[in-house]
Write a structure and sequence with these properties.
The complex is a heterodimer of chains A (about 160) and B (about 650). Chain A is α+β, with helices and mostly antiparallel strands. Chain A is built from four helices and seven strands. In chain A, strands 2-4-5-7-6 form a five-stranded mixed beta barrel. Chain B has about 650 residues and is α+β, with helices and mostly antiparallel strands. Chain B contains 21 helices and eleven strands. The chains are: A alpha+beta (about 160), B alpha+beta (about 650). Chains A and B meet through helix 1, strand 1 and helix 3 of A and helix 13, strand 1, helix 14, strand 2 and strand 8 of B.
C-alpha cells in the first residue's frame, strides 16, 4: 500500500469507528433520558403513562403511612398546587421527612399512584433537591402572585 | 492577626505569580539567563506564601477563630481536631485555597526535580504555572476570600456538614486535588513546547513522570471517594455516575489516554500533536471538574445567577485557559510535526486504539454530565441521565479496550505480525477462556456477562504475567535477581498497573454479577437468612458520640450455627445541625463484604421496636479499590525509572533525529 492509500484507509476506519460510537452513544442517550414532571403536570396528565420519569416536590405533612408488617410506605408529593400519591418499598433515605423536599423516580400505575423505584433526598438538611424546588416555584408562578404558601402550610395540612 | 497575615500572604503571592509568569517568558524569548532564572525563585517564593496562607487558615480552624466567616460557617468547637483541620478545605473558599497551594507545590516540585531541563523550557513551564496561579489567586482574592472577618464574632460555629465528618474527608480531597492540579504540569509542558515549537521525544520523556504521578494521585483520590461513598451513604454502591464523580472521572480518562500517548511520543516520536492536545484536554477537564463541583452549578444552574461575579469569573477563566491554549495549539501544532510511520498492527496502532476508545468514553461521560445542565440552562425542561445510560455506553467501549490491554504490551513497535502475537498470547487466551468458563460456575450461577468480565480480566492478568515470564526467560543475565534487575522500573510499573486493571475488572464483574441486596423488617430477636448467612437483630442502644448521638444496633451474623461476627450499624444524629447520617457496619473480606445498614424504626420506639434493616452481600467488592491502588502503585513505580533522572545525559541521542524546526 502506498502511504497515501494507507492514510485514506486509516481515516476511513477512524470515521467508521466514530460513527459507530456516536450511534451507540446517542441511541443509549435517547432511551435512557429520564424526564422530570411536577405534580401539577402529572395531575394534568402530561406525564407519560408507560415510561419511567421523576417527580419532585414536598412530602405532604401527615401523608406518610406504612403498610403494616412490610417495608412499603405511602406518601403524597405536593408542589402546593397538586398532589400525587406515591408508594415505595424499601429503606427511605436519611433526609426523607414530611414537609421536606423529595425527588422520586418511577412510573405511574393504573391506580393513579406513582410507584417509585428510587427515592432521592440529598446531602444536607437545608438543601432542597433542585427538581423539587423547581416544581414548587413553577406551581407558584402558575398560581400568580399568591402570597407564598410556604413549607409551613404544606406541613400543617 | 493570623487571618490578616494569611490574606496578606495571598496578595503577595499574586504579585509573585505575576512576576513568575511575565519575566521568565520574556527571558525565554530573549534567551536572557538572568530573567529566566527568576522563574525558580518566584515559584519557590510563591509556594512559601500560599502555604503560609493555607497554614493561617488551618490555624484559624484549629483554634476555632469564629471571627473568620469561613471558620464560623464550617467549623464548631465540638468538632475533633482532625475534622477541624479537614474543614479547612470543606468550603468553597478553603478548597480553592487548597487548589492554589497544590498548584504552587507542583511548581516547587518542578524547580526541585527539573534541574536537568534546558533553562528555556523550565522558564516557560514555570511561567505557565504562574499564569494559572494568577487566575486562581485572583479568583480567591476578588470573589472567594477565605479570610473575611465576621463582626461580631459568633460564640459558636455552624459546624462542618455532617456528611463530611468522616476520615474520607481528611484524605480524599487532597488526593483528588493532587491529581487534578498535577495535570497542570503536563499542561505547562505542552504549552511551553508549543511556544518553543520543540516537541520531541525528550519533551515527552520530561513530561511523562509528571503526568504519571498526577494520574496516580488522581486514581487514589477517586478510589478514596468511592470507598467513602460506599460505607457512608448507606446505599452500598461504589459508583453512582453522579456528576460530581464524573467531574473527577473525565480528567482521569483523559490522563489515562495521555499516559499512553506520551509513551508513543517518547519511544517513536509519533502522535506528537495528539499528545499535546490530550495534555491540554486533561488539564481543561480538571479545571471544568473543579468548577462544576465548586460553583454550585450542579445543584442548580441558577446558582450562577445568584452569585454572578463568581460565575462570570469562572466562565471567563475557563474561556481564557481553554480557548487560549487551543488557539495556540491551532497555530503551532503544525510546526510540531508528525511522527514515524507504523503498520496497521503494531504497538502504535494498538495504543491509538486505546486512545480512541478512551476519548470516546470521555465524550460520552461529558455528554451525559453536561447535557442536563444545558437543557436546564436553556429552560427547556428538566432531565436526568442516570446510570443506565452510562452503563449501556460504557461496557461496549470498555470491552475492546480491556482486550487491548492484554495485547498492547506484547506487540512490537512499528510492526507486530499477528501470527507472532498469537504465539506469544495463546497461553493467555487459553487461561482466559478456562477462567471465564469456570468462575461463573464456581460462583453458583452462570451469567454471560460475568463470563465476559472474567474472560477479560483473566486475559489481562495472564497476558501481563506471560510477558513477565517471557522477559525473564529471554534475559541474558544469570540468576533470577539479575534477570529481574535487568528490566526498568517503568516496565514493572506498567505491569503492576495492568494487573490492577485485571483486579479491578474482577471486582466489578463479581459484584455486579452476584451481589445480594435485601431490605428487611426485623423485630428484636428475629433472624433473616441472606446468601447463606443468618443475621439476628439483637436490638438497638443509644450511644453518645463526640458531637452526635448514635443509635447503635447489634446484629449477630452466624454461618452454619457458628458465630462469625457481630455488626453494629449506626444512625447518627448530629447535635449542631440535627442531620441524620447512616453509618454502615461492614465485615470486610478478600472474598467479599457483608454490609449491614440501619433504616428507620418501623414500630414503637426505643429498644423494643422493629427496624428496617438493609443487608448486602458484596462479593469481591474490595478488589475494585485494590485494583485502583495497584494502578496507582504502578504509576509511582514507573516514575522511579532511572531514565527520567538521566534526562540530560540522554537527551541528545534519540531526540536529535526528531527535533522539529524551532
Amino acid at each position: 500500500m502506498k502511504p497515501r492509500t494507507r492514510r485514506f484507509v486509516w481515516i476511513g476506519a477512524g470515521l467508521v469507528a466514530v460513527a459507530a460510537a456516536a450511534t451507540l452513544i446517542l441511541s443509549a442517550f435517547r432511551s435512557n433520558l429520564v424526564f422530570f414532571f411536577t405534580p401539577s403536570q402529572v395531575y394534568a396528565h402530561e406525564a407519560p403513562q408507560s415510561r419511567p420519569f421523576r417527580i419532585g416536590g414536598l412530602v405532604l405533612g401527615g401523608s406518610l403511612e406504612r403498610v403494616p408488617g412490610t417495608l412499603t410506605v405511602r406518601f403524597k408529593v405536593t408542589d402546593t398546587a397538586a398532589t400525587v400519591p406515591v408508594t415505595y418499598t424499601g429503606l427511605l433515605p436519611d433526609l426523607f421527612k414530611e414537609g421536606k423536599g423529595v425527588v422520586a423516580q418511577g412510573a405511574m400505575g393504573a391506580d393513579g399512584t406513582f410507584h417509585a423505584t428510587q427515592v432521592l433526598a440529598k446531602h444536607d438538611e437545608n438543601y432542597m433537591p433542585p427538581e423539587a424546588k423547581a416544581a414548587i416555584d413553577a406551581a407558584h408562578a402558575h398560581s400568580g402572585a399568591m402570597s407564598m404558601p410556604s413549607l409551613h402550610e404544606a406541613r400543617a395540612q | 492577626m493570623i487571618p490578616e497575615l494569611g490574606h496578606f500572604a495571598l496578595i503577595v503571592a499574586l504579585l509573585v505569580a505575576i512576576i513568575q509568569s511575565v519575566l521568565p517568558m520574556i527571558g525565554a524569548a530573549r534567551r536572557d539567563r538572568a530573567l529566566m532564572g527568576v522563574a525558580v525563585t518566584a515559584a519557590r517564593a510563591q509556594f512559601g506564601l500560599v502555604a503560609l496562607a493555607f497554614g493561617c487558615l488551618a490555624w484559624s480552624f484549629a483554634t476555632s477563630d469564629f471571627s473568620v466567616a469561613n471558620v464560623a460557617a464550617n467549623s464548631n468547637t465540638h468538632l475533633p481536631l482532625h475534622f477541624r483541620l479537614a474543614a479547612t478545605w470543606g468550603s468553597h473558599e478553603g478548597s480553592l485555597l487548597l487548589w492554589s497551594m497544590m498548584l504552587a507545590g507542583w511548581g516547587f516540585a518542578v524547580t526541585v526535580f527539573s534541574r536537568n531541563l534546558p533553562q528555556v523550557l523550565r522558564a516557560r513551564v514555570l511561567a505557565v504555572l504562574g499564569m494559572i496561579a494568577i487566575g486562581f489567586l485572583l479568583f480567591l482574592l476578588t470573589t472567594s476570600d477565605p479570610f473575611t472577618r465576621l463582626f461580631p464574632a459568633p460564640p459558636e460555629g455552624r459546624d462542618l456538614n455532617s456528611l463530611l465528618q468522616d476520615p474520607g474527608m481528611v484524605a480524599h480531597p487532597p488526593m483528588l486535588y493532587m491529581g487534578y492540579v498535577g495535570f497542570s504540569v503536563a499542561f505547562a509542558f505542552a504549552i511551553a513546547a508549543l511556544i518553543g515549537g520543540r516537541l520531541d521525544a525528550a519533551w515527552a520523556r520530561w513530561s511523562r513522570p509528571w503526568t504519571t504521578v498526577a494520574w496516580s494521585f488522581l486514581t487514589v483520590g477517586i478510589a478514596l471517594g468511592s470507598v467513602w461513598a460506599y460505607y457512608t451513604l448507606g446505599w452500598g454502591g461504589w459508583w453512582f455516575w453522579d456528576p460530581v464523580e464524573n467531574a473527577s472521572f473525565m480528567p482521569w480518562l483523559a490522563g489515562t489516554a495521555l499516559i499512553h500517548s506520551l509513551a508513543v511520543t517518547e519511544k517513536r516520536g509519533a502522535f506528537r500533536s495528539w499528545t499535546v492536545l490530550l495534555a491540554i484536554v486533561a488539564f481543561s477537564l480538571s479545571l471544568i471538574g473543579t468548577f462544576l463541583v465548586r460553583s454550585g452549578v450542579l445543584t442548580s444552574v441558577h446558582a450562577f445567577a445568584i452569585d454572578p461575579a463568581r460565575g462570570l469569573y469562572i466562565l471567563a477563566f475557563l474561556a481564557i485557559v481553554i480557548g487560549g491554549s487551543l488557539t495556540l495549539y491551532a497555530v503551532r501544532a503544525g510546526a510540531v510535526g508528525a511522527g514515524g510511520d507504523f503498520a496497521p498492527v503494531s504497538r502504535e496502532s494498538l495504543l491509538l486504539g486505546n486512545n480512541v476508545l478512551l476519548v470516546v468514553a470521555l465524550v460520552s461521560v461529558l455528554l451525559g454530565t453536561l447535557y442536563p445542565l444545558f437543557v436546564d440552562a436553556l429552560a427547556a425542561g428538566k432531565i436526568s441521565v442516570g446510570p443506565p445510560y452510562f452503563n449501556t455506553v460504557f461496557y461496549p467501549l470498555m470491552a475492546p479496550l480491556l482486550f487491548l490491554v492484554g495485547v498492547g504490551p506484547v506487540a512490537a513497535w512499528r510492526r507486530a505480525p499477528i501470527p507472532e502475537l498469537w504465539t506469544r498470547l495463546r497461553w493467555a487466551a487459553g487461561i482466559a477462556v478456562v477462567t471465564a468458563a469456570l468462575v461463573p460456575v464456581a460462583m453458583g450461577r452462570w451469567k454471560p456477562l460475568v463470563a465476559l468480565g472474567m474472560l477479560l480480566s483473566a486475559w489481562i492478568a495472564a497476558a501481563t504475567l506471560s510477558s513477565l515470564v517471557h522477559r525473564l526467560r529471554h534475559a541474558p543475565q544469570r540468576g533470577l535477581t539479575a534477570k529481574l534487575r535487568a528490566n526498568a522500573p517503568a516496565w514493572y510499573g506498567m505491569l503492576l498497573a495492568h494487573l490492577g486493571v485485571a483486579v479491578f475488572v474482577t471486582g466489578v464483574t463479581l459484584v455486579k454479577g452476584y451481589e445480594v441486596e435485601r431490605d428487611v423488617r426485623l423485630d428484636v430477636g428475629q433472624s433473616v437468612v441472606v446468601a447463606g448467612d443468618t443475621y439476628t437483630f439483637r436490638g438497638v442502644a443509644a450511644v453518645p458520640g463526640p458531637n452526635y448521638d448514635a443509635i447503635v444496633a447489634t446484629i449477630d451474623m452466624t454461618r452454619a450455627d457458628r458465630h462469625v461476627t457481630t455488626l453494629h450499624p449506626q444512625k447518627r444524629t448530629f447535635r449542631s445541625s440535627g442531620q441524620v447520617i447512616t453509618e454502615a457496619s461492614i465485615e470486610r473480606g478478600i472474598g467479599g463484604d457483608h454490609y449491614v445498614s440501619l433504616g428507620e424504626p418501623i414500630t414503637g420506639s426505643g429498644a423494643s421496636g422493629a427496624w428496617a434493616v438493609r443487608i448486602y452481600v458484596k462479593p469481591f467488592v474490595d478488589w475494585i479499590w485494590g485494583g485502583c491502588l495497584l494502578m496507582a502503585l504502578g504509576g509511582f513505580t514507573a516514575v522511579a525509572d532511572r531514565r527520567y533522572r538521566l534526562a540530560r545525559a540522554r537527551r541528545s541521542e534519540p531526540a536529535a533525529a526528531l527535533v522539529a524546526p524551532t
